[in-house]
Amino acid sequence: MSDFFTVSVLVATLASGIRLATPFLLSALGETIGQRAGVLNLGVEGVMLIGAYAAYITALRTGSVVAGVLAAMGAGALMGIVYAFITVVMHATQGISGIGIFLFGLGFTDLLFRHQVGTPVPIDGLRGLDMGGLSDLPVVGELFFQHSVLTYVAFALVPVVWFAMNRTTFGLNVRAVGETPEAADTLGVRVNVVRTQAIIIGNVMAGLAGGTLALDVGIFQQNLTSGQGFIAVALVYFGAWRSSGVMAGALLFGVVSSTVLQLKTLGIIVGANSTIAAMAPAILTIVVLVLVSRRIGAPSALTVPFERDN
Amino acid sequence: MLEMVGITKRFPGVIANEDVDLTVLPGQVHTLLGENGAGKSTLVKILYGLYRQDEGEVKINGEPVEIASPAAAITHGIGMIHQHFMLVPTLTVAENVALGLHSRRGLADMGPVRKRLMEVSDRHGLAIDPDAYIWQLAVGERQRAEILKALYREAQLLVLDEPTAVLTPPEVEDLFATLRSLTNEGRGLIFISHKLTEVMDISDQITVLRDGRVVGRTTPSETSREGLASMMVGREVRLGRDVPDQDTGDDRLAVDALRVRGDRGNLALEDFSVQVAAGEIVGIAGVSGNGQRELAEAIFGLRPIEGGRVEVAGRPIATPTPKSVRRRGVAFVPEERMRHGAVGELNVSENLMLVEYEHRPYVRAGLLQFGAIAERCKDLVRRFTVKTPSITTQTSHLSGGNIQKVVIAREFSSDAEVLIVAQPTRGIDIGAAEYVHERLLSKRAAGAAILLITEDLDEALQLSDRVVVLYEGRAMCDLPRAEATTDRVGLLMTGVSEDATASA
Ligand SMILES: Nc1ncnc2c1ncn2[C@@H]1O[C@H](COP(=O)(O)OP(=O)(O)OP(=O)(O)O)[C@@H](O)[C@H]1O
Ligand SMILES: [Mg+2]
Prior knowledge:
heterodimer; A: mainly alpha; ABC transporter involved in vitamin B12 uptake, BtuC; 14 helices; binds adenosine-5'-triphosphate; binds magnesium ion
């Protein structure tokens, strides 16, 4: 155990925690936007898988990481349109529809992968940035200045999302339609348009989250996301629908994941224990959800479809 | 400026409007009058694009227009103050006003909005704190926020669906001053109210609806309150009533030195005491937002009590919860019926049974007895003249006044010995209001202790054996009926204490 508590290992663990927090953060921020508008999407996991596959196959074929990132976002946008159609236009029950999206993403990416790729071929994935002197700083450099560009994007999105929610008319509309859609409607806010926009943005971020994951590990495999999308949904509750809270949750889960990995690498936990340790994020999710089950701050119209009854 | 021609609107089981014509001229107040469920709200909702008429045409300044959505109504210069507030509780007043407005570069810059909002509010005498959250505001203040929303958008034709139902006499006077300044500017108004005195005061034209049809058009100079009431109901109506003297029994409800905080953490009630004896109605009069809501909620266990205590039938209630308070024989008609009184998604019979469904004969061996329930519900619906297509209609589909009747029917029909009644006749038509008063008095005759919290001064003075005026969370007086005159109580409501008047 003492192997773990050395400065270099701790720093490496925290640094990789920040890296692992990236997909959590991106997808949970996206889900926050959707939920603030009153739409619950349990299908984040599926969208992440589709984003991950899109990024992987594109990067594999074109050799371009940038193209992979764009493909992931595009795939997310498509899934957003589909989900908006199902829930906003057709008024389908959101919980079940989200599970449907998840199952679709899981099966579809697996199918495509077998068809188009077969045996896993690694790709040239994301690389950490080299920020010269900053990156070379002891401790601080490894912690903060050697990440990939998408990690910085994800954390930069935290204040951006806050600003968008609280300081733009779009955010005002989103908060209103998630809380009291009837009132927003009487002021000429197009409730279902706002919700559709929020869903698409959220799904683009989920797609990007999946893409980040695939490009980070440089490989795709069945169920690559292994539940991260579901944890992202839980993080929205954990963060009480605020971007800063969501960030705290994402970091917590990132660090827990990296700690488990590190302990395994160091051989501190082995065998059956390591399987149990791998469940740590899932257990943590349940604990967290129980603790924050008060649902204070939940948008009042969450999961309630809107239609003017005439 | 506005013409509605041959408007017909059907809902499953009801014809809400049938061949209705309505003309509004610039600079005029056109009043719609009618019983609960007559179709007033439906007509104005069609105008505002919330409902779609089945037949008929809307013309603005002579041009036929299609109003398919509220957005279209707003572009046609129509503004609406809804019967049930259309405000987002988690946003501030300014944010509610800004909602749906176009802004440069998509930034919700509250600075200019607040500035203009304050201008509009000064110009029309509608004081408000632009940074307060809606959920923190009293009903009267929410009302002002609603009006400001429409005025901010430069509405030329303003629809006010029962705006005065939630206001006190001084607030109504202020509102009417605002309305007159609006008509002087050439705007047209559609006004809906059940209070005939107000209607006589403010209207230029009056259209009376009954069961969805126009049954009369008149002006205040051609008619009287009695005339209007008869036209509405379709039979002779006598207004006003005598309350027989009656001996009172022991104190049933005692509130002692109550201290309660409001939503904003302010002290909403301080050292407030009141006793209500069996067979007595104690009226709590006062301008909205002076602690009435908090008082009712505290007694009923919906709000924590910081100091003092509540006793029912001589025994204190340690920590009141709605269930424990109800078990002690207290019934409650809350002020905001849509929020605390009725569940909109449930049907009428379910709402009527919300309190008693756990008792025999409505449940046996854990199974609901639908026969017994239906019988009782039908009886209540008939006795309280709730206008509904059936007892299985979804409650949110009823007209505003009829939703209130559902709550009142439920609470008044229980055999509770203590009744806490907040704004019992707000928004209900004259015939039904008379009926509610009758029921209150017969409860009193049967020995119930009734705490009547009302902002309707006439109602308070007419029914109460004693009147307590609430001002900024404190009791200003506790006057027996004979001493509670309109002038005296009206003055106390504004916070001028008796000592001040005496020495002046
Ligand atoms: N969305 C709806 N679905 C079904 N029925 C409705 C709906 N809206 C209104 N109604 C019915 O139409 C009739 C007219 O209702 P409306 O709300 O216009 O009455 P009102 O005159 O405004 O009454 P009040 O004074 O009580 O507000 C009522 O019988 C009501 O039950
Ligand atoms: Mg109405």
